[in-house]
Design goal:
The chain is about 80% helix and about 0% strand. The chain is mainly α and about 270 residues long. The protein has one domain: Rhopdopsin 7-helix transmembrane proteins (Up-down Bundle). It is a multi-pass membrane protein.
Amino acid sequence: MQVPVKDCVSLTVYSFTFLLGLPSNLLVLFVYVRKARKRGATPNVVYALNLCLANLALVAWLPVKALETFLQDWALPSPLCPVYSFFLFSSIYGSCLFLTAVTVGRYLSIAFPISYKLYRRGRISCFISAALWAVVLLHLSLGLVAEGGGGFVSTSSHNVSVCFENFTQDQLDLLLPLRLEMALLLFLMPLAITAFCTLRCVALVWRSCLPVLGKRRVLAVALSTLAVFVVCYVPYNVSHIVGFVLQENVHWRTEAMLSKTGYLSLS
């Protein structure tokens, strides 16, 4: 069986991400859980925990993605396809929203330190986290409903089984506008908020009385967060917009996820 070059690249990314990303994210999860037990669940800890769980939802299912890519076929039981798709896409948008929440918290702590401290409660952050997950899961549920109650596994034009990739025109009529709405609501809006908060943090820190070294550290963290946001989430969400414009399920959506997947091996 001959695997195309682009799929070999994808397999390499999936393998390294799973081998490096799984233990590193489990370690981060352990550290934040321990910190929450010792010092209490601050907003940053709550959002970081949820961000870590979102990343793990993707990493844990990468062996399935790698197997599908290697075999060029969906060889697993059909009922596993919607579960796999649900975790995969919830990770993308869950991590996107919680990265935004972390950035907003950082901005509020710098711009309004006294006022923010009054509302800086772990319980409030837990409610916000639950609301963010509810938004993500609602959109993904609607996306899975677009399958029309089928088995999610279908036969492509190459006569191989595919998971949640081959759609009828009726399914695309529902799915494409939903993907566009997800790109706008769950990506472009968080991106705008993240960019605003990051640039405001840069301006406030630059005008502050912090030592030069302290300023550089804060600016490096803020700007790296914005860079991660752009690199990880832009390609995949651009595929939603392009797909809506062309009115088709663009074939490079899988490759568009590689930037997000590859980052997890380095985080």
